[in-house]
Design goal:
The complex is a heterotrimer of chains A (about 325), B (about 325) and C (about 450). With about 325 residues, chain B is α/β, with parallel strands linked by helices. Chain B folds into two domains: about 5-180, Rossmann fold (3-Layer(aba) Sandwich); about 195-325, Rossmann fold (3-Layer(aba) Sandwich), CATH 3.40.50.920. Helices cover about 35% and strands about 20% of the residues of chain B. Chain B is built from twelve helices and 14 strands. Chain C has about 450 residues and is an alpha+beta fold. Chain C folds into three domains: about 5-90, Beta Barrel (OB fold (Dihydrolipoamide Acetyltransferase, E2P)); about 120-215, Irregular (Dihydrolipoamide Transferase); about 225-440, 2-Layer Sandwich (Chloramphenicol Acetyltransferase). Chain C has a six-stranded mixed beta sheet with strand order 9-16-15-14-12-13. In chain C, strands 1-8-6-3 form a four-stranded antiparallel beta sheet, with no helix packed on it. In chain C, strand 4 and strand 5 form a beta hairpin. Classes of the chains: A alpha/beta (about 325), B alpha/beta (about 325), C alpha+beta (about 450).
């Protein structure tokens, strides 16, 4: 299936945005400006970009603890993300959520989630809601290989398959659940095989080939929107950095530097860039300009975050409950 | 006024609300043609169809989480979990997701859902089907918890819970489902956070929940024959607790007994005792008494189960002991 | 612009790091992302990458040095750039002298009970404090000798010595389910002995009142005693009287009676007209329907008129709800029903608690007028004396008229004398013009 030039450039831009954002977080985090935990998406950009480009604004996504990529690809604004990571009250969650709980209902982002597998049942619920309301909305549910072993994962896929819910399950198989390699945490290598157990289509794609991811996503979204039920897409990919910032030497306790270097050679950005230049879709200068624009936007986001205020102490007690009269 | 059973009253609340608002759906195990194991959802499938009466596979985390996702995205689900004991199977979805999303998302994203469960021993259902763990959920910020003790309260509280935009646990009691009482025909609500003084008295305050409300009233009649007037206060909502009504009563009588079917340790009774100590200590004329279930799992043998459940036989001695401080 | 090299924040628990080894020397070129030094924390040993490309101009903390997270350990300059002045002055190892954090000593305060500590319930302590009583002077009668609230109450009001009870008498009374109050003690100092309790159990059950009889307070009498005492003590009462010319109302009623009996099988009493007239009058003077609650005067939203009903066991006051909105037929019906059920002790709690204003009539006795105690928490109560035939002078003419004295007691915290007077005046006018008043039928 042919993907148009505009779309391809758009995919590239999204991936660059994610990459630069995460790289900036590395710096900010190391300098203590971002508190808490940071789980970065560097290396997996093609998955978020490819899938989210197949979705409409009104469609939903559920994300994971490693959610910056999904959230950016779905359309979140960098400055509000940055403010949230800084814990400022101008952030998406008024500083109350942090990296792992970023959400924006208006863009259908139903939250990053700090619990592995936590987003699975919620995605099924969003699918149920869309189906009940007849809205035609589709939900993309992101999760890693580690999550596929949880009970909640099984329960969600089962529910979605038996009720034929409009959900696209996207597994970002980066080969590790924190420090446990896939071979040690599950008996299968291809998570997509499990789809058969739910009578839903299962597909394996090269998670570092954004065009392949996008094509697979388009197919699954189409299926879901047509009322044919859920699908499982497994994207083989890799995270370049450790599980979290602070994971020594980018995970050297459980993986080798050689492995990291190998995967870096398959960089999704580089691969698409080559295609763009080879296909003369855009000159190098345009790509450089794009990079610059993104860095500027990033600088502005950081400045915004730094200038913004922290929440007042009283805000700790706000929003525990909805206090206006219900419907 | 016509009388309905507690289960029928809940059923009517569901029915009237579902007619009023098409965003309301019910979800749970065996709630369709079976009508729910306590018949609370009987007839709903026929009236509203499978789109709004969603029967789920046995997968509490899955379907409760789905309820959360559906609530976040425009529906108002009423999810039934068969026994409160089974909430332990999906604690993450309740505690980390349902209760916290509104807060974590900075108030941008609501979870207007109701989780219906039931508590209580007395049917020989043994240790894993008879617990009263409602205190677990009072402990979690972000959840509301209601506890009807009569058919009238059941319909009104469930209706209010459904209309509220917060996640609300409606904690019902197995032994009350068959109890009859007057229930108005119209759609009405009981405001959340409002206790009810079910019996006025000046000598002793009993704060009682669920089946212990009726048992406390029976014990109060006994005590009246001896010239002691017991005041029975039914909190009706456990979170938020109507501290004002409760403490007004404590200050009036100076003697407090809390009767709740949860375990004694770290239960609702402990919370109310602490409240009295914090905010009304100078009015206490006697120690605080707690009549609760013992700190053991619910035993199977009927002889043991009967001894386990807090009853009039446990309330009277406790009340009399407090009156030694008269 | 020099780039600072710091000990990075390494996850949420690390607070300090020790530099194990520098991988580059001062003066060497470095690339961004290239490993620069190795740092060790409590949990983790890891390489730290260079934050910029350039020259490692200065190493400020040597291998082996330990510093808190974010401490400055080195500087990178662009090739050819001079080290800025403020940094040039720093000597190696001078950055961030680590401060040992002093852990504040937890103050331990041993809880040692004072010798001879007095046991008393909290309410007793409060009362003692309020009354300026020394708890050491109070004897405790509670379990384990604890001082109870009533012990302090008694100590504060020594004029009435409390009857003491022998342990045996107390035990027998408990077994028999007997209240000790009301049993006269024959022991020393009025102490209740076993014989007194035994005699009392023998006497229980006899009806009627005899001289010398001691009647334990029933719960109804106890409630009456408590409530009326509370009312007298807390609400400052004022009393007003007015004489009402009743002929128009009595004639009005006499005219209606046959039709009422025929159509509704009811005989409206004078009280029914009174109830309605009072309810309507309250609409003109809503403050008479109010209650003082804490710092607020709350005017009750409904006008529920209570009627005092006498019974052998004690006075009881059921109320008719929303009497202002009911027609005379309904008032008469409800009044008859409530009075009948009052005598059979079959009233419900709402019927007893909902009253907002009370009418008390002794018109069937030879009592011309009387004062009543407010029914708490109400602020007004109307008394009705007997109807008398009198000779009065009207416009120079002597006339025979039937008149009755109405009394009004109000709570002066809520209703002042002039308003009470206006209320009574308004009521009198309504009663003296029945046809107009009862157009509200």
């Amino acid at each position: 299936m042919k993907i148009g030039k505009e779309k391809i450039l758009g995919l590239y831009a999204t991936m660059v945005k994610i990459r630069r954002f995460e790289e900036r977080i590395v710096d900010l985090y190391a300098h203590g400006e971002v508190p808490g935990l940071a789980h970065l998406y560097v290396g997996e950009e093609a998955v978020a970009a490819g899938v989210c480009a197949a979705l409409e604004r009104a469609d939903y996504i559920t994300s994971t603890h490693r959610g910056h990529g999904h959230v950016i690809a779905k359309g979140a604004e960098l400055k509000y993300m940055m403010a949230e990571l800084f814990g400022k009250r101008t952030g998406y969650c008024k500083g109350k959520g942090g990296s792992m709980h970023i959400a924006d209902m208006k863009m259908g982002i139903l939250g990053a989630n700090g619990i592995v597998g936590g987003g699975l049942p919620i995605a099924a619920g969003a699918g149920l809601s869309a189906k009940t309301r007849g809205s035609g909305q589709v939900t993309a549910c992101f999760f890693g290989d580690g999550a596929t072993n949880t009970g909640a994962w099984h329960e969600s896929l089962n529910l979605a398959s038996v009720l034929k819910l409009p959900v696209v399950y996207v597994c970002e198989n980066n080969g590790y659940g924190l420090s446990t390699c896939q071979a040690k945490h599950q008996a299968v290598t291809d998570v997509a095989l499990r789809a058969a157990g739910y009578a839903m289509p299962g597909l394996v794609v090269d998670g570092n080939d954004v065009l392949a991811v996008h094509e697979a996503a388009l197919g699954a979204v189409k299926r879901a929107r047509a009322g044919q039920g859920p699908s499982l897409i497994e994207c083989k990919t890799y995270r370049w950095r450790g599980h979290h910032e602070g994971d020594p030497n980018q995970g050297e306790r459980y993986r080798t530097r050689a492995e990291i270097e190998d995967w870096k050679k398959k960089c999704p950005l580089e691969r698409l860039k080559k295609k763009i230049l080879a296909g003369k879709m855009a000159p190098q200068s345009k790509l450089d300009r794009l990079d610059k624009e993104i860095l500027t936007e990033l600088d502005q986001a950081v400045a915004f975050a730094k200038e913004s205020e922290f929440p007042g102490l009283a805000e700790m007690y706000e929003d525990v409950y909805v206090l206006e009269a219900g419907n | 006024m016509r009388e309905l059973t507690y289960a029928q009253a809940l059923n009517e609340a569901l029915r009237q609300n579902m007619r009023r608002d098409e965003r309301i759906i019910v979800m749970g195990e065996d709630i369709g043609c079976f009508g729910g194991i306590f018949q609370v959802t009987a007839g709903l499938l026929d009236e509203f169809g499978p789109q709004r009466v969603v029967e789920t596979p046995i997968s509490e985390a899955g379907f409760l989480g789905a309820g959360v996702g559906a609530a976040l995205t425009g529906l108002r689900p009423v999810v039934e979990i068969m026994f409160i004991d089974f909430t332990t199977v999906c604690m993450d979805m309740i505690v980390n997701q349902m209760a916290k999303m509104h807060y974590m998302f900075g108030g941008r994203g609501r979870v207007p859902m109701v989780l219906r469960v039931n508590i209580g021993a007395g049917r020989g259902a043994a240790a894993q089907h008879s617990q009263s763990l409602h205190a677990f959920f009072m402990h979690v910020p972000g959840l509301y918890v209601v506890a009807p003790s009569t058919p009238y309260d059941a319909k009104g509280l469930l209706s209010a819970a459904i209309r509220d935009d917060n996640p609300v646990l409606c904690v019902e009691h197995k032994k009350l489902y068959a109890e009859k009482g007057p229930v108005p025909e119209e759609d009405y609500t009981i405001p959340l956070g409002r206790a009810e003084v079910k019996r006025v008295g000046g000598d002793l305050t009993v704060i009682a929940t669920h089946a212990l409300v009726g048992r406390s009233l029976t014990a109060a009649e006994e005590m009246a024959r001896e010239g002691v007037e017991v005041e029975v206060v039914d909190p009706r909502t456990l979170k938020p607790l109507d501290k004002e009504t409760i403490l007004d009563s404590v200050r009036k009588t100076g003697r407090l007994l809390v009767a709740d079917e949860g375990h004694k340790t770290c239960g609702l009774a402990a919370e109310i005792a602490a409240l009295a100590a914090e905010e009304a200590i100078e009015w206490l004329k006697a120690p605080v008494a707690r009549v609760c279930s013992p700190d053991t799992p619910v035993p199977y043998s009927p002889v043991l189960e009967a001894a386990y459940i807090p009853e009039v036989k446990d309330l009277l001695p406790a009340m009399k002991r407090l009156m030694e401080y008269a | 612009m020099a780039t600072e090299v710091v000990i990075p924040a390494l996850g949420i628990t690390a607070t300090r790091g020790k530099i194990v080894k520098w991988l580059k020397q001062e003066g060497q070129p470095v690339e961004r992302g290239e490993p620069l030094f190795i740092v060790e924390t409590e949990k983790v040993t890891t390489e730290v990458e260079s934050p910029a490309s350039g020259i490692l101009a200065r190493i400020l903390m040597p291998a082996g040095a330990e510093a808190p997270t974010l401490a400055l350990v080195g500087l990178i300059t662009a090739p050819g750039e001079e080290l800025p002045a403020e940094y040039a002055a720093l000597a190696p190892g001078e950055a961030a002298a680590p401060q040992a954090e002093t852990v504040p000593q937890a103050e331990s305060r041993a809880e040692t009970p004072a010798p001879g500590q007095i046991l008393a319930v909290p309410a007793a302590r409060r009362l003692a404090r309020e009354k300026g009583l020394d708890l050491a002077q109070v004897t405790g009668s509670g379990p384990g000798g604890v001082i109870l609230f009533r012990d302090v109450e008694a100590a504060a009001a020594p004029a009435e010595p409390r009857a003491r009870v022998s342990p045996l008498a107390r035990e027998i009374a408990r077994q028999e389910g007997l209240a000790l109050e009301g049993i006269r003690g024959s022991g020393p100092g009025g102490r209740i002995m076993r014989a007194d309790v035994v005699a009392r159990t023998a006497r229980a059950g006899r009806a009627g009142f005899d001289l010398g009889q001691v009647i334990p307070l029933s719960h109804v009498r106890r409630v009456i005693a408590r409530r009326l005492t509370e009312s007298v003590v807390t609400a400052p009462h004022i009393y007003l009287f007015s004489e009402v010319w009743l002929d128009p109302l009595l004639d009005f009623r006499r005219e209606l009676l046959p039709d009422f009996e025929k159509h509704f099988e009811l005989r409206p009493s004078l009280n029914d007209f009174l109830i309605k007239a009072v309810a309507l009058n309250i609409l003109d003077f809503p403050l008479l329907n109010a209650q003082l609650q804490g710092d607020e005067i709350r005017i009750m939203p409904e006008v529920n008129i209570g009627l005092a009903v006498a019974r052998p066991e004690g006075l009881i006051v059921p109320a008719i709800a929303q009497a202002d909105r009911l027609g005379l037929v309904e008032i008469a019906r409800q009044r008859a029903d409530l009075v009948a059920r009052a005598r059979e002790d079959k009233l419900t709690l709402p019927e007893l608690e909902r009253g907002t204003f009370t009418i008390s009539s002794l018109a069937q006795y030879d009592v011309i007028a009387f004062t009543a105690i407010l029914n708490p928490p109400q602020s007004g109560i109307l008394t009705v004396g007997k109807t008398d035939e009198k000779l009065v002078l009207m416009d120079g003419q002597v006339q025979a008229r039937r008149v009755a004295r109405l009394g009004l007691s109000v709570d002066h915290r809520v209703v002042d004398g002039s308003l009470a007077a206006e209320f009574l005046q308004g009521l009198k006018q309504k009663l003296e013009r029945p046809a107009f008043t009862f157009l509200h039928l």
